[in-house]
Design goal:
- By secondary structure, the protein is mainly beta.
- The chain has helices at 17-25, 31-40, 88-91, 204-207, and strands spanning 2-4, 49-57, 65-72, 78-86, 97-106, 117-118, 123-126, 129-141, 146-157, 165-175, 186-187, 213-214, 219-220, 226-233, 256-265, 270-275, 290-297, 303-309, 320-324, 335-336, 353-356, 363-368, 384-390, 395-396, 402-405, 420-424, 431-436, 450-457.
- The chain is globular.
- It starts with a strand and ends with a strand.
- The model is unreliable at 1-34 (pLDDT under 50).
Length: 459
């Protein structure tokens, strides 16, 4: 096991660092060393947690990366799906895709597991079209005593030739037998349009309506409802929305985000879902709209939603946030997600999560913070940090920002520490993060290991 150790410093102590180091040591810092020093400026004087790292799934084949998705259930329950990712489908124009899915289950926080069992392929291919049915996340809901799974039906359409057209829909499936089997998928709807028909997935009236790309979580509010944040939804018709240099995805008018709020009906033995109102930003601020939202409940019961955003041209690279006072149906106009002292921080168009620890009762944000203003909308994707959210200002407490991992000497400049799954250990209440470190081999993106990070919060 590799203990991650970082020299920790407060931001304010580093003003003018480059000059003082150069004068005292008479050396010329390399670009990499300078970036490393800047990255160290992002972490706190007293780290809020210790982090250990270990290889969880080793890379077996060059160009094929092992990947693990992790889902929770009743206390101690875990479901893992192991897949392999590569550039093979990207070369055909379909995009990077998971292959060879295998599943195993644990009922004791991962101490023992069932044998890995092969699953049906997640990808199906027809003439110039690929369809991905991907289970994004799952939880156990005590209100229904069922496992609830959120999945995406992701259609990549090449029939009109490149660039491909993308269509996304969100589905809920439930299991009454502890996750062994799941019922039929339920389409999450916010407008009229054809329903899902397995034998006619490419029906136009289905593809172009109720588009919704889910975030990575199903959140259970203290009021007993389930909240599912999604993006790529339609915004009001009167709102001007002109794609800037892109007319394929997201198409005009589907750049918003909303939450579905569901409650279990004991009489119908099913969930009843209500769609909230969408929020959005102009394309000048959010080139692809509000993306990959994640939600958490604040101490006063309000719902916080944080978005990934792709900056346009020389615009700022920020995450954005919005707040709901009615349980997730109506949200405020999005604002930049800042430090709690009002300062901006830079975060490229990368995945992120909100997490409230059962150990500390504090709310945290996990994501990438760039040491300086990025010029690339999607990079850098390191360091990966965790910091405490100030629930009064809805900002990230700068002094708590703690590094989980970062790019190391000899690793690729396009290192990605940005796509991860997390789970809380039901006994120790430690946070576990599972991440494949793409480009840890500088010569090939997918020649990479999957790692497990254990985050132990300090008292």
């Amino acid at each position: 096991m590799d203990q991650v150790q970082t020299e920790i410093s407060v931001f304010g102590r580093h003003q003018g660092l480059g000059k003082s180091v150069a004068r005292s040591m008479h050396i010329k810092l390399s670009v990499f060393v300078l970036c490393s020093l800047l990255a160290e400026m992002l972490v706190s004087a007293a780290p809020i947690a210790t982090v250990t790292r270990e290889v969880y799934l080793p890379n077996k084949y060059p160009g094929k990366a092992p990947w693990v998705w992790l889902y929770s259930g009743k206390e101690g329950y875990r479901e893992e799906i192991h897949t392999v990712w590569s550039h093979e489908d990207q070369k055909r124009g379909y995009g990077d895709s998971p292959t060879d899915p295998m599943r195993r289950i644990s009922h004791d926080d991962g101490q023992t597991w069932t044998a890995l069992e092969p699953l049906p392929p997640m990808m199906t291919f027809t003439d110039k079209v690929s369809v991905l049915d991907w289970k994004f996340c799952g939880i156990h809901d005590p209100a229904s005593d069922r496992h609830v799974a959120l999945s995406i039906l992701h259609v990549r359409d090449m029939r009109a030739g490149p660039p491909r057209r993308l269509f996304n829909h969100s589905f809920i499936r439930t299991s009454a037998d502890g996750g062994k089997t799941f019922g039929l998928p339920q389409l999450l709807r916010y407008e009229d349009g054809a329903g899902f028909e397995p034998d006619d997935v490419l029906k136009r009236s289905f593809l172009t309506n109720n588009t919704a790309y889910p975030g990575q979580s199903i959140f259970r509010h203290s009021n007993g409802s389930l909240i599912v944040p999604v993006c790529n939804v339609r915004i009001p018709a009167h709102v001007e929305d002109k794609p800037l240099g892109r007319t394929i995805w997201p198409t005009e008018g589907t750049s918003g985000s909303l939450c579905f709020v569901g409650r279990w009906s004991s009489t119908k033995k099913a969930y009843e879902w209500k769609a909230g109102k969408p929020v959005w930003l102009s394309r000048e601020m959010a080139y692809n709209g509000l993306l990959e939202p994640d939600v958490a409940e604040l101490q006063d019961g309000r719902v916080l939603m944080v978005f990934r955003v792709t900056k346009y041209k020389d615009g700022p690279a920020y995450k954005w946030f919005s707040v709901s006072g009615d349980g997730g149906l109506a949200f405020t106009r999005p604002k930049p997600f800042k430090y709690s002292n009002g300062e901006h921080f830079h975060s490229t168009s990368t995945f992120h999560r909100l997490f409230r620890s059962a150990k500390t009762r504090k709310l945290y944000w996990i994501g990438n913070i760039a040491p300086e203003r990025p010029t690339n909308a999607g990079h850098p994707r390191y360091p990966l940090i965790i910091g405490e959210v100030d629930e009064g200002t809805m900002g990230l407490r700068k002094e708590t920002v703690t590094q989980i991992d970062t790019r190391r000497p000899g690793e690729g400049k396009m290192m990605q520490l940005s796509n991860f799954w997390l789970i809380e250990h039901s006994k120790t209440r430690d946070l576990e993060i599972y991440l494949t470190r793409l480009y840890e081999n500088p010569d090939e993106m997918f020649t990479a290991n999957c790692y497990k990070y254990t985050v132990k919060f300090r008292p």
